[in-house]
Amino acid sequence: IQMAFMDEELKMPESGAELEQDDERNLDIYGEGEFTDAFFKTLMRVQNNVVNLPGKKEHFDIYLAKKIYPVLVPGLESLSKEVERLMQDEGQIDSSIKERFNPCIFLAEYLMSNNPKYGHQKEYTEVFEKYARIERNRRFWSEERQNFLREFMGQSYQSNFTIQHIEEFVELIDKYLNAEGTIKDATKVKDLFRFLDEDQVIKFEEFYEIFSRNLID
Known about the structure:
The chain is mainly alpha-helical and 217 residues long. It is 58% helix and 5% strand. The protein has eleven helices and three strands, in the order βααββααααααααα. Strands 1-2-3 form a three-stranded antiparallel sheet. Helix 7 packs antiparallel against helix 11. The two termini are 29 Å apart.
């Protein structure tokens, strides 16, 4: 597989911090459809590994979702159809062809001839890119949670956090990340927290869950 995708130097993954998973929360994020939540999470299991790429690092499973799975999944489908064709044949295919058939070579040739580096876009490219983006964002906000909690605990309103203070704290997060207003603009506080009464106090955990989920996609 690496030979078919030589555009980036792929080094051995290194161990990283183990990230928590919440199956019900992931189901809400990813939704249901042709690619079920269970199917996607089965492919995205090695979250605690990091792959070294030129100039950056990436979680290994996200790298696979962006670079490998979009062509590997249809390649495996094509391979299964070819195997089924050979097995169901009733004497129309020469037996020597069946004997010479090598599934590894078949798959390797498929990957080489459908390398997205050369403009081949498979039907799964868009959905895997979407899931990779969502998963990367989810992990970012999960990893940053403790940093924002420390910032929150340093605010005068931390024990009386109401909707009047949410916009102020969102602006603080925006500045902390040097987001130049993009996070503030994407967070419609009155819509996201419309269930709150004017003087109703909200805990940081509940705020952060709603806030971060809004920004994941």
